[in-house]
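Severity: low
Component: inverse-folding endpoint
Summary: output formatting inconsistent between runs
Steps to reproduce: submit the following structure tokens with default settings.
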């Protein structure tokens, strides 16, 4: 609801309107002027808040209202229709009788609220008497004394009456409360989340205001609504000669909340100059904080469903009104739809979607998405509603549309996606130097004559490239000359050879090979040798029958496996061949590392490998990235990934930074499977040309299964070596001994992954022979 930032009286009327609306206490107030649009800093707050839209008024034009308003919204339900069905007549605390020019009027209004004494125009639509008002169905209590800090606390702690603000949530027993920090703080040279400061202070906020200021009224209202109007902080205090004593009184009287590992108190204001707030904060031992750092989306009140549903293809059907809805709201109200306009909203509480202007609209590619579900009418108590949840790629596409681009998957991106799906929940099974060597061996051609012939054919090309680095030019020629090996060129190592490449003990190597086979990455078979022509060939076990026909000469091989035993041979599957041919292992490991580091701090929504961005009406690639990470706040991080460190050139970095400029990326990074010792100066760049943060991930990051070393460590700081390890004498180990420790830790991880920790809790009759 918009309020005039220069008219306090009309702002008070809008608060009265919200208190008379069902769930109105969870509605944001937006201060505006008739000569300007909504401050763009409200964009995220409005897009992510649980609202239908902005109420139309003379203060805003249709374009400003339509930007944040759904197709069918906003609509509001009359509170008195809810109140008449309450079991008893409530006593409600309002600010009636308090003079508007009282310095404490704003503080009391934000806490107690007010109710209109006049009948509501929708009474007849809701089957109510035309002249029915709140005074007829409630006992209204006002404020007789002059405002003070002690009086404000007494008002909060008077449990003989319910405030008008609290009354608006009648029959809405639940709410989505704003988050605040309950754990150890983390540090970085730049912020991954826009909520760090707001979570640091949580609800411990005091707003100092000039009496009669509408902007500060909106500020304290929105702060309190974010935390579901608690009976303590956030509170407002007028700027009077006794302001310091008033703040101390509130704090010492127990108005503050205690949570986490610190006790942070914020002082803020819209109307008071920041230097005065800073001085005042120092005197009362609070922290002076910009109000825009504390304003965040408002979840609002609701009736949460306890039903469990299964989504198939991002879609499910649920009852329009669940049993918990009938219990909380009442069947009589849900059975009559006139004037109620009941609408079901779907909000993912544990994993909220990032804010997006494109997704915020109700119709997105023809389907209802994000905060909006289809309209649920009150009369259809036995009906069903379809709820849709956009997939990760749909969310990514919507964020691209926000920037005027369309997203497509690149060929390497699709190959990496298949590799990730094959790995399942165990991407760390790739995070070891030995695994890189093993996959290279499995996917490398073994026929030297074919390699030489291809390379000679390519080098006969008369076109020469003299502009690029000689090493890069030669490397590119080698890659293009060798091409992708076919099935007959592949190496077929034995298990002992794979174990040697993995650098693992036999048990751990067996577990890794078993995992790779289960995911379809590695195939097991036998090597058959033709006794006539000497041709060697790999065959899957399904073809290992007593008689085999040689692929080369067509003759039957009498003893293809010798006369003693079958020696299993392993080869890469087509899925693995495709992934390695596109060099996407660095993409996958970079995604794993970044998401693990930030995901534990609830900063990441998800990531995807290999994406391209184009204009809606053009097929030319405008920007591309090897890895894109989507943060919870809708920001993105772009990455450039290389198998070899020398593959990163200044031109590649500039392309990455240009893409970041087009997409407004929060940060960029480069990743490689090489050790830091092999990386040049281009890997140590810490920011782009525009000052955007940039970092590098090397083998020291990607192969480290332990993650960040501490809560105060820069998450993605440059590492010259693996994080420190110590021997039994507490001496730091280095060099070859450190490399062996990394291999041993990976082996221990592989064995833990394959361990069934629930085997002893299962019933004896369903245990397998291996339990």
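Observed output (run 2 of 3):
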């Amino acid at each position: 609801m918009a309020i005039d930032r220069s008219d306090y009286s009309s702002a008070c009327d809008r608060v009265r309107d919200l208190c008379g609306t069902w769930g109105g206490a969870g509605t944001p107030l937006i201060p505006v002027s008739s000569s300007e649009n909504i401050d763009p800093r409200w964009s995220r707050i409005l897009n992510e808040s649980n609202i239908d839209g902005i109420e139309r008024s003379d203060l805003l034009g249709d374009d400003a209202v339509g930007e944040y308003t759904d197709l069918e919204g906003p609509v509001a339900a009359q509170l008195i229709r809810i109140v008449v069905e309450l079991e008893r007549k409530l006593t409600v605390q309002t600010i009636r009788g308090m003079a508007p020019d009282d310095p404490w009027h704003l503080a009391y209004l934000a806490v107690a609220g007010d109710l209109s004494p006049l009948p509501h125009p929708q009474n007849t639509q809701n089957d109510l008497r035309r002249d029915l008002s709140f005074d007829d169905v409630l006992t209204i209590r006002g404020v007789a004394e002059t405002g003070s800090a002690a009086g404000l606390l007494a008002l909060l702690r008077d449990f003989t009456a319910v405030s008008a603000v609290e009354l608006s949530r009648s029959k809405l027993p639940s709410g989505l409360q704003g988050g605040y920090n309950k754990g150890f703080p983390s540090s970085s040279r730049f912020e991954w989340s826009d909520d760090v400061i707001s979570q640091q202070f949580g609800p411990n906020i005091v707003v100092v205001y000039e009496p009669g200021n509408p902007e500060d009224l909106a500020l304290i209202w929105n702060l309190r609504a974010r935390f579901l109007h608690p009976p303590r902080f956030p509170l407002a205090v007028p700027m009077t000669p006794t302001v310091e004593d008033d703040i101390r009184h509130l704090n010492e009287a127990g108005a503050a909340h205690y949570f986490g590992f610190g006790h942070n108190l914020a002082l803020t204001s819209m109307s008071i100059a920041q230097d005065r707030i800073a001085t005042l904060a120092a005197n009362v031992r609070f922290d002076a904080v910009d109000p825009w750092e504390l304003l965040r989306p408002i979840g609002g009140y609701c009736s949460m469903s306890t039903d469990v549903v299964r989504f198939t293809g991002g879609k499910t059907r649920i009852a329009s009104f669940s049993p918990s809805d009938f219990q909380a709201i009442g069947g009589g109200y849900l059975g009559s739809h006139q004037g109620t306009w009941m609408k079901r909203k779907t909000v993912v509480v544990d994993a909220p979607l990032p804010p997006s202007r494109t997704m915020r609209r109700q119709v997105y590619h023809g389907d209802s998405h994000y905060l909006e579900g289809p309209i649920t009418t009150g009369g259809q108590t036995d009906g069903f509603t379809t709820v849709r949840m956009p997939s990760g790629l749909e969310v990514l596409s919507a964020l691209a549309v926000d920037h005027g681009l369309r997203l497509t998957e690149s060929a390497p991106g699709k190959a990496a996606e298949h590799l990730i799906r094959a790995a399942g929940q165990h991407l760390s099974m790739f995070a070891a130097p030995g695994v890189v060597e093993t996959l290279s061996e499995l996917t490398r051609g073994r026929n030297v004559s074919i390699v030489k012939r291809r390379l000679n054919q390519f080098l006969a090309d008369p076109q020469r490239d003299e502009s690029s680095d000689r090493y890069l030019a030669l490397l590119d020629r080698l890659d293009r000359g060798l091409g992708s090996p076919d099935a007959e060129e592949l190496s077929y190592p034995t298990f002992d050879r794979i174990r040697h490449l993995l650098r693992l003990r036999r048990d751990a190597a067996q577990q890794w090979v078993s995992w790779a086979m289960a995911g379809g990455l590695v195939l097991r078979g036998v090597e058959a040798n033709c006794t006539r022509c000497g041709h060697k060939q790999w065959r899957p076990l399904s073809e290992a029958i007593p008689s085999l026909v040689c692929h080369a000469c067509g003759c039957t091989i009498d003893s293809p496996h010798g006369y003693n035993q079958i020696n299993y041979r392993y080869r890469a599957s087509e899925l693995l061949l495709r992934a390695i041919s596109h060099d996407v292992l660095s993409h996958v490991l970079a995604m794993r590392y970044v998401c693990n580091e930030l995901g534990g701090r609830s900063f990441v929504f998800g990531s995807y490998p290999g994406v391209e961005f184009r204009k809606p009406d053009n097929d030319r690639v405008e920007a591309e990235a090897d890895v894109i990470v989507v943060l919870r706040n809708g920001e993105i991080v772009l990455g450039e990934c290389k198998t070899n460190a020398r593959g990163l050139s200044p031109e590649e970095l500039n392309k990455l930074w240009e893409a970041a400029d087009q997409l407004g990326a929060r940060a960029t990074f480069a990743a490689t499977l090489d050790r830091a010792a092999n990386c040049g100066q281009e890997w140590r760049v810490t920011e782009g040309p525009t000052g955007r943060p940039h970092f590098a991930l090397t083998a020291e990051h990607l192969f480290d299964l332990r993650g960040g070393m501490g809560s105060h460590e820069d998450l993605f700081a440059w590492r010259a070596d693996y994080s420190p390890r110590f021997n039994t004498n507490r001496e730091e180990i280095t060099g070859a001994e450190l490399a062996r420790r990394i291999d041993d830790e990976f082996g221990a991880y592989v064995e833990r992954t394959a361990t069934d920790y629930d085997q002893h809790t299962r019933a004896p009759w369903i245990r397998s022979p291996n339990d």
